[in-house]
C-alpha cells in the first residue's frame, strides 16, 4: 500500500472515530448529563430507569435523525458542488431545501395533509421543482450557470419561498404555531416514523451518489474536454440531479430546511482527501453526519435555558466559512 | 437627449425617460385617488378631493383624510424608497437580482427590528430605530468583509447573501423562541404591512427620502459611469470605491427607512428598476423613474391587499411576495427561451 493510500485510509478511519465520539457525546449531554458508561448501559435492550428513558426515549431519536439528515445534506452538497462545478453550491443556499419546506407547508396548511408519507413525497416534489427552477434561473442566455449567478438565483428563490411560507402561516394561530418550526431546521421531536418513511429514499440517494462519483470526476474536466475524451455525461448529470433531489427532499421532510451543512463539509473533505469525488462524496457524508450531530449537541450546551435549534447553529457556524470562501476567490465582473 | 439648465446646474434628460416619468406620475396620482375613494365605504371623486383638503363632512374627513390618506402617502413614499434603493443596488452590483432584499440588508433590518420587538419589548417606534440600525450594521459588516483591495461588486453580493442566510436563521430562531402571540405579531411585521400607518410614519420616510434625494443628486453621474467595468470607470477619473461606499450608504439608508416603517416588503426593490429599464430603454440607473415605478407598484399592491380579500385585509407583503414570485418565474422563462434559441 502506498503512503498516500494509507493516509486516506487514516482520514476515513479518523472520520469514523470522530463520528462515534460525537454520537456518544450527543447521547451524554443535555439538561441531565449522563456518563459514557451509563450511556452504554442505557442502550442495552434490557435497561430500564431514568437514564434509559432519557437516552433511548429522547436523545437516541434526535441523534439518529441528525446522522441521517446530516449525511444526506453533506452528500447533496458535495454532489451539487461537483455537478455545477461551483464551490458556493449548497442545497440550503440555493433554495432547494426551502422548496421542500414550502411544499410540505402547503400540504398541511392548504390541504390539511399531516400524513407523514404524503409529506415526504411533497418534500421531494418541492425539492425537485426548486432545483430545476434555480438552475434555469441561474443559467445565463448562452453560458452555463456561474457560481455567482446561481447563488443569487438561489437567494431570490429562497426569499420568494419564505415569504410564501410566512403568508400561509398568517392564516390562523394553529397552523402558524406548527409552521414556525418548519422555517428553521431542527432534529428534535420530528418522529421516528417520519424518519423511517424518508430513510429508503435517502439510502437510494446515497447509493446513486456513490455510483456517479466517477462520472463527476469527468464533469470536473469541463464539457469540452469530457466530450473530447468520448465521455457521455448526460445520463450521469440526470442521475446526480435525481440523487440531490432524493437526499434534500427526504432529509428536509424529516428535519426541516438546513443551510450551510452541504456547503461547509465538502470543502473540509476536499482539503483532507483531494479533489477525487470517489472519496470526497462519501467522506462528506460521514463528516456532515458528525457535524450535524455536533451542532445539535452544541445547541443544547450553549444556552442554559431553552435549546438552540441545530439549524441555527449550522447557519451561524457555516456563514463565516462561506464569506471566507467568497473573499478568497478572485471574482470577475462577468461571472 | 435634452439639456435642462438652471443657472450653473444642468441635467441631461433622455426624452423617453422624461415621457415615461410623466406618465408614471399621472398614473400614480390616479392610483392614489382610486385608493382614497374605493373601499367598503366608497366615495365619489369630488368628495375625495374635498376631504383631502379638509372640507368634507366629518365622516369623509375621518375615513379619507385621517385613515386612507396617510396610509396611501406612506405606501407611495415607501415605494419610492424601495424603488430608488433597488435601482442603486442593481446598478452597483450590475445584476438584476442584486437588490437589497436579496442581498441581506432587508434581512439585517428585520433582525434589528425583531431584537427590539421580541427581546427588548420595545414600542413600534423603537422597532423602526432597531430596523435602521440593523440594516446599517449589516451593510457595514458586508462592506467591510467584501473590501479586499477594493470592493468587487460580486463579492459584495455574495458576502451579503451569506450573511443574510445566517441572519435569516437567527430571525427564525428569535421567532421560534418567542411566545406564540408575540411571535405571530413579529411574523406579521416580517411580511411587510401598511395597515394603520399614520402621518408620523409618513414624516419619517419623507425625511429619509429628502436626505436620500440629496445624496442621489451627488451620485447620479458617477453611478451611471460605474456601470462600465472598473477599469473603464477608473479611466473616466472615477473613484469607484468611494462611489460605491456612498451609493451603498444611500441605498441602505433608503431601504432601512422603508423597512422601519412598513416592514421588509419583498420584491418592490427587485422589480421596480427592472420595469424601469424595460419602459425607458435607457442605460444607467434612472433612479427617478425607478422610484416612481416603486411607488405605483406599492400603492396598487396595497389597494389590492386592502380591498380584494374583504372582509379580511392581507398584509401587502404577501401580495408583493407572490407577485415577485410570478415575476421571477417570468424572468426564468425568458432566460430559458433565450437559452434554447
Automatic annotation (TrEMBL), chain A:
InterPro entries recorded: ABC_BtuC-like, ABC_transptr_permease_BtuC
Positions in coiled-coil regions: none
Keywords of the record: Cell membrane, Membrane, Transmembrane, Transmembrane helix, Transport
Domain of life (superkingdom): Bacteria
Bilayer topology term: Multi-pass membrane protein
Cellular location(s): Cell membrane
Main localization, broad class: membrane
TM stretches of this protein: 12-30, 64-83, 95-114, 121-138, 150-170, 195-221, 241-268, 280-302, 308-326
Similarity comment: family membership: Belongs to the binding-protein-dependent transport system permease family. FecCD subfamily.
Protein name in UniProt: Iron ABC transporter permease
Gene source species: Actinoplanes couchii
Lineage, opening ranks: Bacteria, Bacillati, Actinomycetota, Actinomycetes, Micromonosporales
TrEMBL record, chain B:
Highest taxon above the source species: Bacteria
Transmembrane segments: 70-90, 102-120, 126-145, 157-176, 204-224, 245-267, 287-305, 314-333
Keyword Transferase set for record: no
Membrane topology qualifier: Multi-pass membrane protein
Keywords, alphabetical: Cell membrane, Membrane, Transmembrane, Transmembrane helix, Transport
Subcellular location per the Swiss-Prot or TrEMBL entry: Cell membrane
InterPro entries to which the protein is assigned, alphabetical: ABC_BtuC-like (IPR037294), ABC_transptr_permease_BtuC (IPR000522)
A Pfam cross-reference name: FecCD
Keyword check for Metal-binding: no
Family listed: Belongs to the binding-protein-dependent transport system permease family. FecCD subfamily.
Protein name as annotated: ABC transporter permease
Amino acid at each position: 500500500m502506498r503512503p498516500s493510500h494509507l493516509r486516506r485510509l487514516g482520514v476515513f478511519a479518523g472520520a469514523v472515530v470522530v463520528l462515534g465520539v460525537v454520537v456518544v457525546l450527543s447521547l451524554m449531554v443535555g439538561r441531565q448529563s449522563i456518563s459514557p458508561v451509563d450511556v452504554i448501559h442505557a442502550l442495552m435492550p434490557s435497561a430500564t430507569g431514568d437514564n434509559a428513558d432519557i437516552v433511548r426515549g429522547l436523545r437516541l431519536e434526535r441523534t439518529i435523525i441528525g446522522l441521517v439528515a446530516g449525511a444526506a445534506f453533506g452528500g447533496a452538497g458535495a454532489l451539487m458542488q461537483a455537478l455545477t462545478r461551483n464551490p458556493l453550491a449548497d442545497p440550503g443556499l440555493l433554495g432547494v431545501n426551502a422548496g421542500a419546506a414550502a411544499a410540505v407547508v402547503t400540504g398541511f396548511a392548504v390541504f390539511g395533509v399531516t400524513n407523514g408519507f404524503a409529506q415526504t413525497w411533497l418534500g421531494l416534489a418541492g425539492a425537485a421543482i426548486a432545483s430545476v427552477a434555480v438552475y434555469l434561473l441561474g443559467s445565463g442566455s448562452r453560458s452555463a450557470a456561474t457560481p455567482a449567478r446561481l447563488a443569487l438565483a438561489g437567494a431570490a428563490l429562497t426569499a420568494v419561498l419564505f415569504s410564501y411560507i410566512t403568508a400561509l402561516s398568517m392564516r390562523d394561530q394553529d397552523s402558524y404555531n406548527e409552521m414556525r418550526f418548519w422555517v428553521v431546521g431542527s432534529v428534535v421531536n420530528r418522529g421516528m416514523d417520519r424518519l423511517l418513511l424518508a430513510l429508503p429514499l435517502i439510502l437510494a440517494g446515497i447509493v446513486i451518489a456513490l455510483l456517479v462519483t466517477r462520472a463527476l470526476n469527468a464533469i470536473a474536466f469541463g464539457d469540452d474536454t469530457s466530450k473530447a475524451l468520448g465521455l457521455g455525461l448526460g445520463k450521469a448529470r440526470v442521475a446526480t440531479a435525481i440523487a440531490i433531489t432524493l437526499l434534500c427532499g427526504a432529509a428536509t421532510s424529516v428535519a426541516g430546511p438546513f443551510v450551510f451543512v452541504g456547503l461547509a463539509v465538502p470543502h473540509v473533505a476536499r482539503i483532507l482527501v483531494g479533489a477525487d469525488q470517489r472519496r470526497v462524496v462519501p467522506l462528506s457524508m460521514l463528516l456532515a453526519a458528525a457535524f450535524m450531530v455536533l451542532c445539535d449537541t452544541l445547541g443544547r450546551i450553549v444556552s442554559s435555558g431553552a435549546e438552540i435549534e441545530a439549524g441555527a447553529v449550522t447557519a451561524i457556524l457555516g456563514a463565516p466559512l462561506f464569506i471566507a470562501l467568497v473573499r478568497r476567490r478572485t471574482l470577475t465582473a462577468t461571472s | 437627449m435634452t439639456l435642462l439648465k438652471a443657472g450653473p446646474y444642468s441635467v441631461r434628460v433622455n426624452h423617453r425617460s422624461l415621457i415615461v416619468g410623466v406618465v408614471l406620475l399621472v398614473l400614480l396620482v390616479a392610483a392614489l385617488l382610486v385608493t382614497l375613494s374605493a373601499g367598503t365605504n366608497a366615495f365619489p371623486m369630488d368628495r375625495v378631493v374635498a376631504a383631502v383638503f379638509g372640507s368634507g363632512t366629518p365622516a369623509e374627513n375621518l375615513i379619507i383624510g385621517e385613515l386612507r390618506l396617510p396610509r396611501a402617502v406612506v405606501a407611495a413614499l415607501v415605494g419610492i424608497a424601495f424603488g430608488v434603493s433597488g435601482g442603486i443596488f442593481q446598478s452597483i452590483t450590475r445584476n438584476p437580482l442584486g437588490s437589497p432584499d436579496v442581498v441581506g440588508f432587508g434581512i439585517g433590518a428585520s433582525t434589528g427590528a425583531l431584537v427590539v420587538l421580541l427581546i427588548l419589548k420595545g414600542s413600534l417606534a423603537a422597532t423602526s430605530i432597531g430596523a435602521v440600525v440593523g440594516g446599517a450594521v449589516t451593510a457595514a459588516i458586508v462592506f467591510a468583509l467584501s473590501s479586499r483591495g477594493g470592493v468587487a461588486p460580486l463579492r459584495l453580493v455574495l458576502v451579503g447573501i451569506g450573511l443574510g442566510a445566517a441572519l435569516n436563521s437567527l430571525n427564525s430562531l428569535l421567532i421560534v423562541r418567542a411566545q406564540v402571540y408575540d411571535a405571530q405579531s413579529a411574523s406579521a411585521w416580517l411580511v411587510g404591512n401598511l395597515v394603520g400607518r399614520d402621518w408620523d410614519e409618513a414624516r419619517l420616510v419623507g425625511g429619509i427620502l429628502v436626505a436620500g434625494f440629496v445624496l442621489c443628486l451627488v451620485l447620479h453621474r458617477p453611478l451611471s459611469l460605474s456601470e462600465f467595468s472598473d477599469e473603464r470607470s477608473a479611466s473616466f477619473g472615477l473613484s469607484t470605491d468611494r462611489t460605491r461606499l456612498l451609493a451603498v450608504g444611500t441605498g441602505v439608508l433608503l431601504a432601512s427607512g422603508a423597512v422601519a416603517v412598513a416592514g421588509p416588503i419583498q420584491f418592490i426593490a427587485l422589480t421596480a428598476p427592472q420595469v424601469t429599464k424595460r419602459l425607458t430603454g435607457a442605460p444607467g440607473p434612472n433612479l427617478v423613474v425607478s422610484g416612481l415605478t416603486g411607488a405605483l407598484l406599492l400603492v396598487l399592491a396595497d389597494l389590492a391587499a386592502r380591498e380584494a380579500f374583504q372582509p379580511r385585509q392581507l398584509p401587502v407583503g404577501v401580495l408583493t411576495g407572490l407577485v415577485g414570485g410570478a415575476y421571477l418565474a417570468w424572468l426564468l422563462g425568458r432566460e430559458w427561451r433565450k437559452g434554447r434559441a
